[in-house]
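Course assignment 3, question 2. Fill in each field.
Student: A.L.
Task: Predict the tertiary structure for the chain below.
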Amino acid sequence: MAFLTEQELESLRIDQSVFHIVGPGEEHFQLLAAFDPSKHAQFFLGRVRSVNSGNRYEFMEDAPVRAQLARISRDKSTFQEESEKLATAFNGAHGGSTAVGAFLIFSLSCSSGRLFALLKFEDEKVLSYDYDVSRGRSGKPKPTFGEIERTFVQNRNALQKAALVKLRKEGDEICVIDRQNPQRPAAYFEQFLLVRRQRTEEELTKAIIEFTRNIAQKHKDILPQEAMKNLAQRLYDASQSGGSLDGENAENWLKSIFGPLPDDSPVVAD
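Answer field:
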């Protein structure tokens, strides 16, 4: 189940935004002022929406991140101060082989209320190009190039770690993604958030098998008959063979059970 509904995704807007530079060493760390995202809101909202299929977590008792986000929720004037505390804590845990990048914090709102997004973008060196019509000897435009090291790119893999957080009286909701470690976020990221997974591996496996069985029955008329005849065995084999279900690549899990499916298959969509 997606973290945000279609209605929530469509109504999503950015209320406050900031990013700070983090890295494996203190020499990279740099606190920055909050910025107005209005000109690039759709780009950043697109990156937030891409986190919608992460694993569900819950805060552990007295989690500092939860307390800091709650302060922002109560008083938006604390956004800059609390964002700096969050970035400092993230940078302190962000060591070893981790890469330099930007740690973004967004306070957002949607049809169901307020939420927060914490995103770690890794710097990617890109080569920009243009052309100069006045320089080409042959009369053709001459290309020009420039290197850009600090970038926000649309490539999903540049957004390495992310968390979406809803603070609710009836129970907080947290969605976490680590694209370097899809099955389990890096320990330092879990420790920074001070969260624990809502379900065990065994519970998740049972849930995967059950909803895959339900989807298969719903679409049994368009799935291979041989696969449906042996569905129970195929589900067991897929779950015991080390296969995994990535919310952003559900077709890989389904392929291990039913074989290749069309890109526009309603089975994949469901």
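Instructor remarks: Residues 63 and 194 are 5 Å apart (CA to CA). The first helix runs from residue 6 to 11.
Grade: pending
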